[in-house]
Amino acid sequence: MTESNVTLYIATSVDGYIADDDGGVGWLDEFEEDTENDDIVEAYEEFFDSVECLVMGATTYEQILGFGEWPYGDLPTYVFTHRELPQATDTVEFVAGDVDSVATELEEQYDHCWLVGGAQLAREFLRTGHVDDLRLSLIPVLLGSGIPLFTATDETRRLQHLDTQTFRSGIVELRYSVEKHHHDE
């Protein structure tokens, strides 16, 4: 069994926001509809094929439900929530436990998990040392304000650059591995 890994794969504006002030991601639409986007679609599909489970927060989950058809087929999906939410498919499971312990369980069960978002859950996974890879799709736009991926309280973490891909639409994807903490050893 290879060492499992968790990838935070997320789109952000160049100034670091993953959603606008209302939590919306409408500003991503024009890039998703861009006909020049076959190269991005291909990169995404290659990534998606390697994923064995999805992890997301309740707000992200509701947003995806709001887009219409569930885009992830029957891939096991874990949604962190304390609320009652509709189940998109039989493979969606709602978890209300401690992020650290749930993440540890998922890492034992799956080789590759995609941490879809949102910001709060991503920060908690990072804080507890459960993000191995960071894939940031930088969208060529400055939002000016909104929901930041990282906040001023996030501690310093070293990243090792793995790859940079530039797409025709102007989106740049940065890939890093996240250096592990040693404070809990």
Automatic annotation (TrEMBL):
Q: Which InterPro entries does the record match to this protein?
A: DHFR-like_dom_sf, RibDG_C, Riboflavin_Biosynth_HTPR
Q: Which GO terms describe its biological process?
A: riboflavin biosynthetic process
Please state every residue range assigned to the domain named Bacterial bifunctional deaminase-reductase C-terminal: 6-172
* UniProt cross-references to Pfam families, sorted A to Z: RibD_C (PF01872)
Supply one GO molecular-function term: 5-amino-6-(5-phosphoribosylamino)uracil reductase activity
Q: Which PANTHER family match?
A: 2,5-DIAMINO-6-RIBOSYLAMINO-4(3H)-PYRIMIDINONE 5'-PHOSPHATE REDUCTASE, DIHYDROFOLATE REDUCTASE FAMILY PROTEIN (AFU_ORTHOLOGUE AFUA_8G06820)
Its name, as the record gives it, is Dihydrofolate reductase
